[in-house]
Amino acid sequence: QVQLVESGGGLVQAGGSLRLSCAASKRIVTINSMGWYRQAPGKQRELVASTTSGGNTNYADSVKGRFTISRDTAKMTVYLQMNSLKPEDTAVYYCNLQAYGGYEGNYWGQGTQVTVSS
């Protein structure tokens, strides 16, 4: 029903920056939240940052002060600005959208690799 298309991953040196983008294929007004998760090899998927329809944001402690989530409602796009990247940020990053109403569901993007070299 709804596809999420991510972009912006890549290889960066420690201390560098990357910006991830995620665009939804449909315009949805009944959104609970949009956010980013990540999964490193051998680890469980974890929340990185999320933003609700009311504008509240939530960050993992490990990224507070370094990452910023933002959303362009008109473009149905969520962004993750990642600064001061560390090797431990290396993971596959997944976009997530949680909706209710007609498009109710928990949607995931295909994932984008972020690799931070030391």
SSE order and pairing:
Elements: E1 4-7, E2 10-13, E3 18-24, E4 31-39, E5 46-52, E6 57-59, E7 67-72, E8 77-82, E9 91-99, E10 105-108, E11 112-117
Parallel strand pairs: 2-11
Antiparallel strand pairs: 1-3, 3-8, 4-5, 4-9, 5-6, 7-8, 9-10, 9-11
Which spans have pLDDT < 50 for at least 5 consecutive residues? none
Could you tell me the radius of gyration in angstroms?
A: 14 Å
Strand content: over 45%
Average pLDDT, rounded to a whole number, is 96
Elements, N to C (H/E): EEEEEEEEEEE
Determine the number of helices (DSSP H or I, runs of at least 4 residues): 0
Specify the helix fraction band.
Answer: under 10%
N→C terminal distance: 40 Å
How many strands in all?
A: 11
Largest sheet entry: 7 strands, mixed
What would you call the structural class?
A: mainly beta
Name the overall outline.
Answer: globular
Tell me about this structure.
This protein has no helices and eleven strands. It has strands at 4-7, 10-13, 18-24, 31-39, 46-52, 57-59, 67-72, 77-82, 91-99, 105-108, 112-117.
Describe the structure concisely:
The protein has 118 residues and is mostly beta strands. The chain has strands at residues 4-7, 10-13, 18-24, 31-39, 46-52, 57-59, 67-72, 77-82, 91-99, 105-108, 112-117.
Kindly list the characteristics that best describe this protein.
118 residues, mainly beta, 7-stranded mixed β-sheet, 11 strands, 0% helix
